[in-house]
Amino acid sequence: MAYSEFWNPKNETLPREELQALQLLKLRRLCEWAYATTPFHQRKFDEAGFKPEQLKTLDDIRRIPFMTREEWMESLMEKPLFGDLLATDPVNAIRYHLTSGTSGRTPIRVLDSMKDWDWINEMWCYGLWGFGIRPEDTVYFAFGYGSFIGFWGAHYACEKIGALVIPGGAQTTEARIKQIIEMGATTVCSTPTYALHMWQKAREMGIDLAREGNVNKVILSGEPAGSIPAVKQQLEQAWGAKCGDTAGMTEVGTIMIFECAHQSGGTHIIEDHYIEEVLNPASDEPVGYNELGERVVTSFGRGFIPVIRYRTKDMVMKVPASTCTCGRTWDMYSGGIRGRWDDMKLIRGTNVYPRAVEAIIREYVAIDEFQIYVWRKDDIQDEIDIKLEIKPGHESEWPELQHKLAKDLANAHEGLRFNIVRMEYGNLPHFELKAKRLVDARPVAKY
Amino acid sequence: MTTTNTDLLGKPLTEQERELLNVYEALKKLAAQSDLPPCAARNVRKALMSMWQATNDLDLQFEQLYEFGV
Question: Which domains does chain A have, with CATH numbers?
Answer without folding.
Answer: 1-342 (3.40.50.12780), 350-440 (3.30.300.30)
